[in-house]
Amino acid sequence: MSHILILPGDGIGPEIVQEAVRVLRAAEQRFGLDISLDEAPVGGAAYDLHGDPLPESTLDKARAADAILFGSIGGPKWDTIERDKRPERGLLRLRSSLGLFANLRPAILFPQLADASSLKPEVVSGLDILIVRELTGGIYFGQPRGIREENGERVGFNTDVYSESEMRRIAKVAFELAGQRNNKVCSVDKANVLEVTELWKEVVTDAAKDYPNIELSHMYVDNAAMQLVRAPKQFDVIVTGNLFGDILSDEAAMLTGSIGMLPSASLDENRKGLYEPCHGSAPDIAGQGIANPLATIMSLAMLMRYSLERGDVADAIQAAVEQVLDQGLRTADIYTEGTRKVSTEEMGAAVAEAL
Amino acid sequence: MSHILILPGDGIGPEIVQEAVRVLRAAEQRFGLDISLDEAPVGGAAYDLHGDPLPESTLDKARAADAILFGSIGGPKWDTIERDKRPERGLLRLRSSLGLFANLRPAILFPQLADASSLKPEVVSGLDILIVRELTGGIYFGQPRGIREENGERVGFNTDVYSESEMRRIAKVAFELAGQRNNKVCSVDKANVLEVTELWKEVVTDAAKDYPNIELSHMYVDNAAMQLVRAPKQFDVIVTGNLFGDILSDEAAMLTGSIGMLPSASLDENRKGLYEPCHGSAPDIAGQGIANPLATIMSLAMLMRYSLERGDVADAIQAAVEQVLDQGLRTADIYTEGTRKVSTEEMGAAVAEAL
Ligand SMILES: CC(C)[C@H](C(=O)O)[C@@H](O)C(=O)O
Ligand SMILES: CC(C)[C@H](C(=O)O)[C@@H](O)C(=O)O
């Protein structure tokens, strides 16, 4: 029996997670899976209930689970509360407490949605990049940090810090994954300016020695931001630190034009993972039943593949998504003339049906 | 009399700077300017001569000048020398020693070159963004920094740090410049994670009170990286720190598809400045006479506008560039069928002629 914890979160989180659960139920039936589901509050919803965006009880359940399906968190309602209680901090603490150091963010162009991209079709058609972002280190968690008084004024400071072992373990994940793809890894740094990334470059280069079939290249982050716009198909796997990964993965996702389609996985050493859509909580459309549940459904597919080691189920879910896209079903965010606009629930039901 | 220091640097630097000087000579004649020119080595070229990418004599000349026209630096030849002697370090020391805290990077789409963009024409036509990047603070210069031993392994670390006054003075530059454009400033931070940018957001918001006509918005850096791809024309002026500015300005530049066209200015408190093309030293094509000198020529235009307060000369140089583009002249990097491919020198001569 596999234990999956559902963390719906805020904004559109509950709606989209509900559709992913519908698809999960359909997958259970079809493949005779043995899954127990539990649910817990996180983010602003948890703050409202317990005064904490990651209550102890939620963290305990997360530790006990084999995998976590996460909706989204945050919203204007919690933007002005005490810093440590904000929804984002709950997510950051969850990543850190569970040791979810490997963040996998695919940027894939769905041929059915090629028009949605702001890039020329020839630049992005067939795009399939995987960004491997380190998720529990770097400037996100580095100490010291804060705001201090100095010479009569305030000074803000944060520390970007990585140890060799942290760098090596994320590099290995990237090399392993590239081995299942096109054997190319581009490591992104700013080694010409920052010592922490100078060491990064050195360690990644050294780690590559165990992967003779992988072609490793290095790129400065400013150049990578350019190359993603100029010729994104030159990339297979990109590996980088927490902050650069945050920026580049969002840029890469937007190349596809349909961020409502993109899933992500955050894995620990044992491939236990948290799975969430790349998009945010979209408070402006929450509760209207028009959000796109496909990124969350694709996140469920990643969950099946990585944490439950059921690549067959993952493939079936992906095929079901492709099928409803082929049928012309579209939520509002990906709607174009000539297709059929459906609600969050209709989309979820259609994928479950296709499965 | 105005004193301009020429720093040709490495790679294609000397070739492109030579053409900018040709245009400067033509401008001198036409407008009866009184300019004295001097030249000094910088970057790898200076390292080869003096063992230092920024020799004391070069720095002295830079301090004495009213404005500096800079080519480009770096190349594989110097990639493996001692860290402190690398060409980039010379440029960073120059920026810091002269207090060039305000880096202005326009991303403008030339209608003649619209095809060069990898984005759809409707997304980028008429694009005109100005990125204002803080250039002498943040993680580029923050202490402590380095690589230390800890628990038997190496740990790399850097410090992102900004004081209120540093933040306020760059915000003011952005507001002033926006006032001469479309009165919109978007400040980019990662205030949901980094304390240093939380303070940034607060200080920029406060500084905006003196500019009631400016519409200020805030955006997280990951979202900004996305929005630049999705709908870049939503931006007028973007203001941000050193590292985010490095990344976003290169991304924005690439939206135009012709980075060989984009100039930049780095200004101190008194509008003394260093002017350089956005592109790098392109060692692969150095010495072939095929590099595009237009970004350097446009940098000369910025020099006229900001440091010499000769907006009229700047306008004339820009008009001359537009004219040669209209005539169909193109260097190899912007060549398309139906236009005329010219050398670096032919391009420079044509602009000088048009002037
Ligand atoms: C919400 C925020 C803290 C988070 C991050 O920066 O990691 C988000 O942008 C992401 O990429 O998952
Ligand atoms: C060469 C390098 C140090 C420099 C920087 O990062 O500032 C460059 O990328 C730039 O943007 O001018």
UniProtKB/TrEMBL annotation, chains A, B:
| Cellular compartments per GO CC | cytosol
Top EC group: oxidoreductase
Keyword check for NAD, yes or no: yes
Query: Any idea which positions bind substrate?
Result: R95, R105, R133, D222
> Keyword Amino-acid biosynthesis on this protein?
yes
Q: State the needed cofactors, names only.
A: Mg(2+); Mn(2+)
EC number assigned by the record:
1.1.1.85
Q: How is the cofactor bound?
A: Binds 1 Mg(2+) or Mn(2+) ion per subunit.
| Binding-site residues for Mg(2+), renumbered to this chain | D222, D246, D250
Which Pfam families does this one have? Iso_dh
Q: By its UniProt entry, which Gene3D superfamilies does this protein fall under?
A: Isopropylmalate Dehydrogenase
Residues holding NAD(+): 75-88, 280-292
What are the protein's UniProt keywords?
A: Amino-acid biosynthesis, Branched-chain amino acid biosynthesis, Cytoplasm, Leucine biosynthesis, Magnesium, Manganese, Metal-binding, NAD, Oxidoreductase
Can you name one GO molecular function term for this protein?
Answer: 3-isopropylmalate dehydrogenase activity
Q: Specify the Isopropylmalate dehydrogenase-like domain's residue ranges.
A: 3-351
Q: Which HAMAP family match?
A: LeuB_type1
Function recorded in the entry: Catalyzes the oxidation of 3-carboxy-2-hydroxy-4-methylpentanoate (3-isopropylmalate) to 3-carboxy-4-methyl-2-oxopentanoate. The product decarboxylates to 4-methyl-2 oxopentanoate.
- Assembly and oligomerization: Homodimer.
Question: Which family does the entry's similarity section mention?
Answer: Belongs to the isocitrate and isopropylmalate dehydrogenases family. LeuB type 1 subfamily.
The name of this protein is 3-isopropylmalate dehydrogenase
| UniProt organism field | Alloalcanivorax xenomutans
Which lineage do the record's taxonomy fields give for this organism?
Bacteria, Pseudomonadati, Pseudomonadota, Gammaproteobacteria, Oceanospirillales
* Recorded name of the encoding gene: leuB
